[in-house]
Amino acid sequence: MRLTLRVWRQAGPDTPGRMARYEVADVSPDMSFLEVLDVLNEELTLRGEEPVAFDHDCREGICGACGVVVNGQAHGPERTTACQLHMRHFSDGDTIDVEPWRAAAFPVVKDLMVDRSALDRIVASGGYVTAPTGSAPEAHATPVPKEDAERAFENAACIGCGACVAACPNGSAMLFTAAKAEHLGALPQGRVEGDRRVLAMVETMDAEGFGGCTNTGACATACPKGIPLPSIAAMNRSFLSAARRAR
Amino acid sequence: MTSTPAPPEQAAYRVGAPLRDTAVPDGPLAERWDRRRFEARLVSPAARRRHTVIVVGTGLAGSAAGATLAEQGYRVEQFCFQDSPRRAHSIAAQGGINAAKNYRNDGDSVRRLFHDTVKGGDFRARESNVHRLAQVSAEIIDQCVAQGVPFAREYGGLLDTRSFGGAQVSRTFYARGQTGQQLLLGAYQALSRQIAAGTVTMHARTEMLDLVVIDGRARGIITRDLVNGRIDTYLADAVVLATGGYGNVFYLSTNAKNSNATAIWRAHRRGAHFANPCFTQIHPTCIPRSGEHQAKLTLMSESLRNDGRIWVPVTPGDARPAHEIPEDERDYYLERLYPAFGNLVPRDIASRAAKNVCDDGRGVGPGGQGVYLDFADALARLGRAAIEERYGNLFEMYERITGENPYEVPMRIYPAIHYTMGGLWVDYDLQTTVPGLFAIGEANFSDHGANRLGASALMQGLADGYFVLPPVLGDYLARLPRGAAWQVDEDHPAVREAMFAVTDRQYALLSNNGDRTADSFHRELGALLWDRCGMARDADGLRHALTRIPELREEFWRRVRVPGSGTEVNQSLERAGRIADHLELAELMCLDALHRAESCGGHFRTESRTEDGEAARRDEEFSYVAAWEFTGTGRPPVLHREQLAFDHVHPTRRSYA
Q1: Does pLDDT of B613 surpass 90?
Q2: Which of A112, B399, B506, B566 has the most CB within a 10 Å radius?
Q3: What letters, b where the CB count within 10 A reaches 16 and e where it falls short, cover A97-134?
Q4: Interface mutation vs chain A, best among B145, B160, B252, most A CBs within 10 Å
């Protein structure tokens, strides 16, 4: 396959960016999207041009490092991560737009690379169970209903890639935050700190500059891990009752 | 100690003094860890905040260590090269974590887990360390459950377990096919809590490029900020490396693309011995590679072998689709050769068996480099819903990558480089040969021997980070000398020398206006290593590699091209630096593989095998850890042997028949 890539190039957070046009030949349908960027970068290097900076690591769809907007969609047309997006979903001769996540809370670092550390700060503000090492009770001391464990797992599957934020017209991190709140809130171990957790995480989320939720649902549609949209409603419920109790 | 006749390769290395001080406490095996903890000096809570500890890496071992040390009151400076500590490669581990809980009442115990792990490591691990690992395994599960790790559960609310390769009991705890992710998130959240509390200072997008050694002790690191290129010095009372393994030296592996050997290799150059570098684990259930473009390989959890049956056609060259091959023309070779363990034989055995049938011309798929992993029987027996529940995400992943639906056609799998059992040599206290430098998790060599059983790496990472390192590190800090001489600053000549070494190397890479990319060297080195030091090795092949690698290294420094500057994001520079290290490490791996003229675990020397073709260990000559001392690039290293004693699990031929 032969493709035309239009790639966002931006030297740094304070410099203006632009779309640059590149032709890539010999693309195999078995390649992943990132492997196409690898090929492009090898060519750019040999031509004496700067390669395109992009984040990636495990290339198995689990580390959450990669993330680009492909033809206007976070991670591209398939519901998966960019590293697991294969070129068999494109056609010979296609022109493909490649851009970074765009959100106020995710400043561009360089080219396709953005700073997602705001998500880490949301977790740090309360997304944990306070269980210092060595103080844990025997694992079977608290049985957890299978359904609760499954619900916790479903939300815990979030990889923190930020596609939900990139897809949201408001740049909201509600799905990410709700996933963490619901994961820990579904388990007896996490319930003790439930009120404090949800209040702190929502407060941090707002302070970091993420937008509000208007129930558009684009987040859940773009989420490569299928974090359920109703988790947001569940978090809103937890938040309201926690806020009432805190008053 | 047995005296080894001088091998013909003697000129390639020198033999140094044996390593005798392993810091293993005396006394009965089961009491050693208790005794060590009791004898360890304590640092009072008030004194702890005066100590700074550097932790490099945020995988299971690093995050667990950082969180625990900070909880105890130490000041922690923590580093990772990813944009977030949550992205460390531990996150990709799929299958599960072992623990001697005996929840199934199927005869498991600390002793049995210890026994299985020593045997699985083909008698090249240190007994005392492995026993301690088995002891703390049960505590790990308690800790993770308390953190909210959503392990799989039974309807009664209790934890579910499954069995894994190399074990006949069901001791593996799991969270669908994403156990590593869930365990890492648990550790990352514990670490995040400390970051918010200000006890851990987290430096993401920062890479360690050198170790600072002052008066014989590790006192700091030199780093590069991967965003603005700044080269910085961080000084501390101790340095902990939790930087993972070096499997990426092969280019194609199941490791994350950025996992690399730089931190441990540069520590090796500063005096830390490197142990058993040739011990590489090949994982049997990887998705076969599809073409030249491929940048990395994707693993399928070996838990699939619980229900999937592995087979190839009986007849070489049989090109019919799987469903057209009748039952009696299929060879379920693992079930035939190893009836007691069947498809659940350990990884090295399963990998070699796959290579053998493919070498016979019976491999399936493009290029004949694959075997079937077939779920037809399990689907008929358990129904699609049950299979989906157990392996759903793995099936989806397989379909996404290959475009084939494994509910309808059997998966194709092939072995791939997965985990490195070698690493920095550490004593019982996880301390390297440089005092004050500790190595934990995959970065050290200690617990796995020549092979690693499934579900044991997650166990080791968390054991080291949560439970083993904190007390022994405290003991080290409590014994430190005091007074003005202990204070060092960035003007110390050793710091300046390390800074100079780092900037000099960076300048050399950036100013070299060559005509080849760093990746092209990486691919060439990887292919050479896979051919000559991969699933099977022989003396001729290794000698060839030992001639070729120095040539390739010379060519690299002459022809590599690194665009851009050092004062900005420059991923080409990051990669080139790592590949320069790979080009040195690869030589040591081949030398180690050549000197170890026996087969054991993942190290299969074709000259050393039994009459029926299985790996033949030579315990009389090689029952030792090979710990290599660096003497200079391209110069003969010094071999220090740590003799291993097997007083509790007597070496027998590993048989899974």
Answers
A1: no
A2: A112
A3: bbbbbebebbbbbbbbbbbbbbbbbbbbbbbbbbbebe
A4: B145
